Amino acid sequence: MIAFIDAHRGLYGVEPICRQLPIAPSTCHAHVAARRDPSKRSARTKRDETLRPEIARVYAENFGVYGARKVWRQLRREGFEVARCTVERLMRAMGLQGAVRGKTVRTTVPDPAQPCPRDKVNRVFSAPAPNRLWVSDFSYVATWRGFVYVAFVIDAYARRIVGWRVSSSATAGFVLDAL
């Protein structure tokens, strides 16, 4: 909003624009004053400006794998009194993210050569009587020994599972076995 007011202040003036927008003229004037004189900025903004380069430095020194918790701990070891939520907020604003452990599971590998199946119920998952509409889906569950795939068939009228199957591999056969 401040950018809009700055762009149109010469034509309309600050107060008439602020009357139309949900912003007080004093807020606009304070923002402009803080932009001109950095000493008038809030304590949080000043603190953020000093912490941003330190966070970027710690992140870069550790090959871009440290997350907010480890960056926060390293800053504390170096003598910076900073809250972890502040480090999280600044890292999010700077677009920094730590490495994530583990492997992503890809459950569906689409074949662009195959046509997409039609939605035969038009996203209306209700039935007038039992055994008129069955809906099927499958998902995966992480276990200590790896991922387990679960397929299930639900009766749309009763909202109950009428068939299910568990498998260690996601093949079309195990989904059909649930029927």
Automatic annotation (TrEMBL):
GO biological process: DNA integration
Molecular functions per Gene Ontology: nucleic acid binding
Integrase catalytic domain mapped to chain residues: 126-179
Domain of life: Bacteria
PROSITE patterns assigned: INTEGRASE
Transmembrane segments: none
NCBIfam families membership: transpos_IS3 (NF033516)
Protein name according to UniProt: Integrase core domain protein
Source taxonomy: Bacteria, Pseudomonadati, Pseudomonadota, Alphaproteobacteria, Rhodobacterales
